[in-house]
Amino acid sequence: MTDLLFQNNSYIRQFQSRIKKTITLPNGNVGVVLEHTAFYPEGGGQPSDKGQINGIPVNDVYSEGSDIIHVMSDLPQAVAVEAAIDWSRRFDHMQQHSGQHILSATCHELFGAATVGFHLGAQSSQIDLDLPGFTDEQMNAAEQLSNEMLYGNKAVRIHQATQATLHEYPLRKQPAKDFAAIRLIEIEGIDCCPCGGTHVAATGEIGMIKIRSWERKNNAIRLDFVCGYRALADYQYKNLLIKELSGRLSAPGPQLLSTLDKLFNKADETNRQLAAARQELNVQLAGNLYRQTEPEKGIKIIVYQLLNSSPADVAGLAKQLVSSPATVALLAGVADDNSKVHLVFSCSPDLTINMGPILKAALPLIEGKGGGNGSSAQGGGSSIKHTADALELARQAVIQLL
Fold first, then answer.
1. Would you call 49 exposed, middle or buried from its count of C-beta atoms within 10 A (0-12, 13-18, 19+)?
2. Using CA atoms, how far apart are residues 369 and 214, in angstroms rounded to an integer?
3. Which DSSP string do the residues of 142-196 spell out, in sequence order?
4. 88 with 199: CB under 8 angstroms?
5. How many whole angstroms separate alpha carbon 174 and alpha carbon 177?
6. How many CB atoms are closer than 10 A to CB 204?
7. Within 13 A of 25's CA, how many CA atoms are on the CB side?
C-alpha cells in the first residue's frame, strides 16, 4: 500500500522515498511503486501529476488497488529516491479543481442543480449539471457569484471523515457508496463534499473563474470553464484578438460588431453581383462554345476546361450548355490553388446517354470520386495533370454511344 502524501498536503513539491517494487509495462515502460508519494494518480475527473524521480521523467501516474504506479521510461538505479512534482501542472490542476467545487456549489445554490460529471481538460474544464434547461443569464449569474466567493479568500480544508462523524459536515452531496473512511474538501461557508483531488489552501489562490460557454449534452447542461492562470491566458488572448481586429478594421472595440455587420452586408451584395455576372458570363461562354463546336453524328459534344473555378462554376456552365437540344457537355474545372479538378458530364434532356458510367471510367485518371444520374454526373480528384486525358476518354466514350 502506498502512503499518499498529497491527501493531506497538496503543496508538497519535492520528497524522498524508497522503491517498493517495479512492474514491467507495455511499450518498454516501467511502473515504479514507492513507499510513499506526492504524485496524484489520474481519477475523479482530474489528470495525473507529472514530474521526475531521480531525474527520470514520470510520464503518467495511476492507481492499481492500493498501489500508485509511476510510469517511467527508465528504472531508477537506487532504491532510495528523490522525487519532484511538476509544480506548474500541479498548481494549475489545483486551481481548476477548487474552482470546479465553487462553480458546482454556486449552481446548486442558484438553480438547485446537481453536478453529475466533471472533466479537467488540458485547455479547459467541464461540469455537467442535472438541469432541464439553461440560459446565458443563468450562466452570467453563476459566474458572478462564483467570483464573489473567491474574493473572500475563504479557507479550503481537508477532513478525514468516518460513518460516525459524517453528520458533522454540511455536505452538498452524499458519498456515492458506503465507506469506512472518506476524504472531504470543505470550502469555508461555501461547500463541502467528498473528493480525492488536489486543492488550493484558500479561494483567493484560484484567481478567477470564467465560464466560456454552455451547451446541452447527454440530457445535461455542460459548462465549459477556466480558472486561475488559464482564465488570465484566455483573457489575454481575446484582448489581443480584439486589439488586432480593431486595428485591421480601424474601429474601436465597442464598434467592432457594427463594423463587421456593415462589411458582411457589403460582402453579401458583392456576392450577389458576382453571381449575376457569373451567370451572364456562362450564358455568353456557353453560346460561344456551342457555336464553335461542330456536331458529330448530329450531336454537339462540347469539351472545355475552366481555370480558377469552383465546382459550382463548372456545374453552372454545364447546365447552360445542355439547355440546348442534342448537346453533351464534358467540362473540367481546376481550383484556383491547383489542388484539385472537378468534372461535370451532362447531356440535354432529349438525349438518352447515361453519363454515370462515362464519369466512372474517367475518374481514375484524376484519382477522383463521384457519381450521378443518367443525364448528369460529376466528381473531383487531385491529379490535375491528367485532366485532358479524362476529357478525351469521355469524348470517345460518348462518340461510341452515338
1. buried
2. 39
3. HHHHHHHHHHTT-BEEEEEEETTTGGGS--SS--SS--SEEEEEEETTTEEEE--
4. no
5. 9
6. 12
7. 19
Q: Which domains does the chain have, with CATH numbers?
A: 3-85 (2.40.30.130), 91-241 (3.30.980.10), 286-401 (3.10.310.40)
Cell triple for residue 180?
469506512
What is the DSSP pairing of strand 327-334 with strand 341-347? antiparallel
Taking the whole predicted model, whether its pTM rises above 0.70 is answered as yes
pLDDT tens digits, residue range 345-386? 999 999 988 999 998 999 999 999 998 878 899 999 998 899
Strand order in the sheet with 156-162: 156-162, 181-187, 191-194
State the amino acid at position 220 in one-letter form.
A
CB 369 within 8 A of CB 376: no
Place of cell 452524499: 174
d(CA 123, CA 138): 23
